[in-house]
Write a structure and sequence with these properties.
5-stranded parallel sheet; single chain; Rossmann fold; about 475 residues; alpha/beta; globular; GMP Synthetase, Chain A, domain 3; Helicase, Ruva Protein, domain 3
C-alpha cells in the first residue's frame, strides 16, 4: 500500500503546483485501498472538502495510471487530529497552513494583529465596532442556514473567520442574487471582531470602492493618499462585495490590483463576492483576473426544497410568526428563486395574518401567493434550448452533439451552449456533460458568443428570435 500511494502521490504532484500540493495533499494518508476503493484521510476538514470538491477525479485518474485499474476515491476526516486540539478546520486560530505543523514544530503565526484571541472588550463594543465597519449585526453564522448548495461556501467562510490571512486568501464567493453571499461576508467580519475586537475589518461594496476612488482623484494629493491608507494600510480583513461592478472601470481596476497586492503580500485577508466566477467577468484586466483566481473559489447555488423550508422556519422564528411546517413547505414549493424572495413571501403572509389576528394556514398562503402559484413557469431545460436552436438553424441534435467542426454546425453548437447558460440554471460542468465536451470548452464558446453580441453581430438577432420563442412558450 505504501509503495502504491507513493507512486500515486508522485503522479498527482505532476499535475499540481507546489502550493496546491503542500496546502491540500501533504496531510493526506491512505486509510484503505481494497476492492477498488481508495480511502484517504486527513485531520484537516477544509483540505478534505477541497480535495473532495476539486481533486477527487484527479486522484482517481492518477491511481488508475499507477495500478492499471479504476478506483473509487473517498476522502475522510480524522477527528482526532495530530494533537487532539485541532479546530474545526484543522487550524488553531491564526496558524498558517503554508507551513505544516506537528506536535514538535511550533505553529507559525501569519499576522498576530489579526489572529483571533479571547474577547477583551464588552459585547457592546464589538457591536459598535461592527457598525463602524459597515457590517450588519443580524447576518452572522448563526442565522445562516446551510444546505447542500451552500455548505462548501459556508465552511470556507468559517475557516477564513477562524484563521484570517491564511492559505484561503483571497476567498472568492459567487452566485446569483439573494443567495447569501453578502450574509457570509458579514458573518466573516462579525466573527473576526468577536474574536479580536481591535481587528481592522473593512466591508465595502465595489460600487462604493469605485466612487471613493473617483472622489479621491484630483489636484489634492492628500485625498488619494487617504484613500490608499483606508484600503491598504488600515485593513486586516477586506470584504469586497459585488466585485463585478469593477468590470470596464480600467483605472479603478489598476488601483484595486495594487491594493490587492499590498494586502496579500503582508498576509492579510481578502474576501470577495460576485454574481459570476472570475473567468466570466467581462472587461477585466487579465492580471487582476489572475489575482482573483489565486485563492479559493466557491459558489452558492439556489437552495433545495428542504433548505428553503429550514430557511423559512428560522426566519419565522426570528419574526415571531407561528408558521406550521405545511405552510413553510407550500411557500418553499412555490418560491424557488432565492432566499430574498422567500423572506418576502413569508413576511407578506405573516403580516397579513398577524394584522387580522388569525392563524396562518395553507389556504391563506395560497391566497396571498396566488399570482406566484398561477404564474409559476415550468423551468426551462438545456435540452429544450438545444432543440429550439437546432430547429432554428435546421441542423440535427446528433450533429451538434457530435464532433463536426464546420461552421454550419459549430455556430449552432456555440449558440446552444450560450443560451443554455443564460436561460437555465445549468452549470458549466452540467452543460459539458450534455454537449459531450469539457466545461472549459463550454465556457470558451459562451465568451465567444458574448463577444459577437457586444460587437453587434447578425448572430445576435437570430438569438433574440430563439430566446423570445423559448421564454414565451
Amino acid at each position: 500500500m505504501s509503495s502504491f500511494w507513493t507512486r500515486t502521490s508522485e503522479e498527482i504532484r505532476r499535475h499540481l503546483d507546489a502550493s496546491a500540493w503542500t496546502d491540500h495533499f501533504a496531510s493526506l494518508r491512505v486509510k484503505r485501498a481494497t476492492g477498488g476503493t481508495l480511502v484517504l484521510t486527513t485531520a484537516d476538514e477544509m483540505s478534505a472538502l477541497l480535495v473532495e470538491k476539486n481533486y477527487r477525479k484527479l486522484v482517481a485518474r492518477c491511481a488508475e495510471a499507477v495500478s492499471g485499474r479504476p478506483w473509487h476515491v473517498e476522502i475522510e476526516v480524522d477527528d482526532e487530529g495530530d494533537d487532539g486540539q485541532m479546530s474545526l478546520f484543522g487550524l488553531q486560530p491564526g496558524v498558517s497552513r503554508s507551513t505544516p505543523t506537528t506536535p514538535s514544530t511550533p505553529a507559525t503565526v501569519t499576522h498576530a494583529h489579526v489572529a483571533p484571541t479571547p474577547r477583551r472588550t464588552a459585547p457592546v463594543d464589538v457591536r459598535r465596532r461592527a457598525m463602524d465597519c459597515g457590517l450588519s449585526l443580524t447576518w452572522d453564522f448563526g442565522s445562516f442556514v446551510m444546505g447542500d448548495t451552500n455548505e462548501f461556501a459556508a465552511s470556507a467562510a468559517r475557516a477564513v473567520a477562524e484563521a484570517p490571512g491564511g492559505v484561503y486568501s483571497p476567498l472568492f464567493i459567487y452566485g446569483g442574487v439573494g443567495l447569501g453571499k453578502t450574509h457570509l461576508l458579514n458573518a466573516i467580519g462579525l466573527s473576526v471582531l468577536e474574536r479580536t475586537p481591535d481587528a481592522r475589518v473593512r466591508y465595502v461594496s465595489a460600487e462604493t470602492f469605485v466612487n471613493e476612488f473617483i472622489d479621491s482623484l484630483g489636484s489634492d494629493r492628500g485625498r488619494i493618499d487617504e484613500f490608499r491608507e483606508r484600503n491598504r494600510r488600515d485593513v486586516d480583513v477586506l470584504l469586497l462585495d459585488d466585485v463585478q461592478f469593477l468590470s470596464g472601470k480600467e483605472r479603478t481596476q489598476i488601483e484595486f490590483f495594487h491594493t490587492f497586492n499590498a494586502l496579500h503580500r503582508s498576509g492579510r485577508q481578502i474576501v470577495l463576492t460576485s454574481d459570476r466566477p472570475p473567468a466570466e467577468l467581462p472587461h477585466l484586466e487579465e492580471r487582476l483576473r489572475s489575482r482573483l483566481t489565486s485563492g479559493l473559489i466557491t459558489d452558492i447555488q439556489p437552495p433545495g426544497l428542504e433548505t428553503r423550508v429550514a430557511i423559512l422556519q428560522k426566519r419565522a422564528e426570528k419574526l415571531g410568526f407561528s408558521v406550521p411546517r405545511d405552510v413553510c413547505t407550500f411557500i418553499a414549493e412555490n418560491v424557488r428563486s432565492n432566499v430574498r424572495e422567500l423572506h418576502g413571501a413569508l413576511l407578506r403572509i405573516g403580516s397579513w395574518a398577524h394584522h387580522r389576528r388569525i392563524p396562518i394556514t395553507v389556504d391563506i398562503a395560497r391566497e396571498q401567493l396566488g399570482h406566484v402559484v398561477q404564474d409559476q413557469p415550468n423551468e426551462l431545460s438545456p435540452r429544450a434550448v438545444l432543440k429550439a436552436v437546432c430547429e432554428h438553424f435546421s441542423v440535427t441534435e446528433k450533429d451538434v452533439l457530435g464532433r463536426k467542426r464546420v461552421a454550419t454546425i459549430a455556430t449552432p453548437r456555440r449558440v446552444a451552449m450560450y443560451l443554455s447558460r443564460k436561460l437555465t440554471s445549468a452549470s458549466y460542468p452540467e452543460l459539458g456533460q450534455l454537449f459531450r465536451r469539457d466545461h472549459t470548452t463550454v465556457l470558451a464558446a459562451c465568451r465567444r458568443v458574448e463577444d459577437e453580441v457586444e460587437k453587434g453581430s447578425p448572430l445576435a438577432g437570430r438569438m433574440d428570435v430563439i430566446e423570445r420563442r423559448l421564454v414565451t412558450r
